[in-house]
Amino acid sequence: MAPRTNSTDALSKIPPPLLHSMRESFSVLDRDNSGSVNAADVAEMLSQLGLTATPSTLNSYFPDGAKSINLATYLNTISDLLSGLSHPNELNAAFEAFDDGDDGQIDLGELKDALLHTAPEAGERKLTEREIDMVVEGFSGRRAFGKGGKGLNRSEVFRYQEFVASITGGGNTENGGGAIAPA
Known about the structure:
Layout: H1 7-12, H2 16-29, E1 36-38, H3 39-48, H4 55-59, E2 68-70, H5 71-82, H6 88-96, E3 106-107, H7 108-116, H8 129-136, E4 140-142, E5 156-158, H9 160-168
Antiparallel strand pairs: 1-2, 3-5, 4-5
Helix pairs in contact: 2-5, 6-9
Domain EF-hand: 17-52, 86-121
GO molecular function: calcium ion binding
InterPro entries: EF-hand-dom_pair, EF_Hand_1_Ca_BS, EF_hand_dom, Myosin_RLC
């Protein structure tokens, strides 16, 4: 992951659709509409997602040991984290290596196999199949047609262009428009 940038600089590179989504996500976390999110709010959301909400996990969501965060802090923290993501063109190029049909879809089984059997970078851990399933949920489905338009091979696919657009703020996936500018 790239080193963190100045929070204000990172926030200025967030495209408007992603910024809107980030504000909406804060509203979801702020269950009592108090204007701030506390550990109980985060614990509830993690529980709903099937994730563990240990004290150490919860502390990682609050910078400098704060008890709660407001919208501005939330936006700066999230934009700081997003600034470390690869540029959308790099992400698309990595997925395109698996895209035999040049249709923005890759075989989900092949992708899972690659992710489960590739050694992680130093300091990182391997993804579990459950984690992979959680990430691809909403971006996977059955292939409508096989290669050449034939109704064969209706395997499960991952729609990577939609995924990349979702995590980078949408926009034109062909030229990276509307995406986060590289840090």
